[in-house]
Write a structure and sequence with these properties.
about 280 residues, alpha/beta, 4-stranded mixed β-sheet, elongated
Length: about 280
């Protein structure tokens, strides 16, 4: 491990010491308590999420819309697109939409689709090869807030990442709120659900992927060379990246903070680092 890290530093950065003390690059906010959503049962909630669902190749059983609604604007467009694809439209009372949405803001429309299939690390690497690109994988280490995970997936898709890895335990899964928070980006993103993040990291290393973890006291992200096959790890809202994951990483990167607030939300930090990494990979 030590030789791997030293060789990486020497190759990418020479002998200059870039280690500086900066504030943490993402928010350590406590996860929300109370209502717990069920994982993906094929329900897709909200106008943006349904729009992206209709663009995808996933089978759609039916679409529920608010009964007696005027069906103006984007709802009308979505209904027309669904009808053109021979997808049944069912008008229901708002209480039915509320039940299906499990507390998420459904905006008057909910789709019932086939459950999203999880992918594998091999699928992500194959996608990168198919596109002729260096792998860019996002690893979410125990993120518990569904809004944060959804926004993170959206950032990953916009940056052209090849997949997002989430753990099976002590983390939010793919729920209606995650779907909605991703603004439908989840329909275009490979998601892998793994038993052990550390084991996955070791597997990625063996496949030639460098591991960059976003944490405090690391190299500024803009002084880091991401022009390689890389996986970027972002930690949970409460505890950040676990100790063993941090120790198994090749490099620690940070976003310097210059204001009075000393941290960014995890999805905001992801957008900064991922867009920078994506740009460097395409130089």
């Amino acid at each position: 491990m030590e030789n791997r890290k030293n060789n990486f530093k020497k190759e990418r950065f020479g002998n200059k010491n870039h280690q500086k003390n900066y504030k943490d690059s993402y928010e350590r906010s406590a996860s929300s308590e109370g209502f717990v959503e069920k994982e993906d049962n094929g329900v897709v909630v909200g106008r943006n999420a349904v729009r992206e669902l209709l663009k995808s190749e996933r089978a759609v059983d039916k679409i529920y819309v608010k009964k007696g609604g005027s069906h103006e604007g984007s709802i009308t467009v979505l209904i027309a697109e669904a009808v053109s694809k021979s997808i049944p439209i069912v008008e229901v009372e708002v209480q039915k939409l509320d039940f299906l949405a499990q507390g998420s803001n459904h905006q008057g429309i909910v789709a019932q689709a086939a459950m999203k299939e999880y992918s594998s690390i091999e699928d992500m690497l194959a996608l990168a090869q198919e596109r002729g690109e260096k792998p860019l994988i996002v690893i979410a280490d125990s993120i518990e807030d569904p809004h944060n995970l959804g926004a993170l997936i959206r950032c990953a898709e916009c940056a052209g990442a090849h997949g997002v890895v989430i753990p099976k335990r002590r983390a939010v899964g793919i729920t209606p709120t995650v779907y909605k928070s991703s603004a439908g980006a989840i329909e275009h993103m490979l998601i892998a659900k793994v038993t052990n993040i550390s084991t996955t990291i070791e597997s990625l290393k063996k496949k030639g992927v460098w591991i960059f973890t976003s944490e405090a006291d690391g190299t500024p992200y803009y002084e880091t060379d991401f022009n390689c096959a890389c996986a970027i790890v972002l930690g949970s809202e409460g505890n950040g990246v676990s100790r063993i994951v941090k120790e198994n990483s090749d490099y620690i990167v940070s976003i310097p903070m210059y204001g009075k607030v000393n941290s960014l939300n995890v999805s905001t930090a992801a957008s900064v680092i991922l867009c920078h990494a994506a740009r460097m990979q395409r130089m």
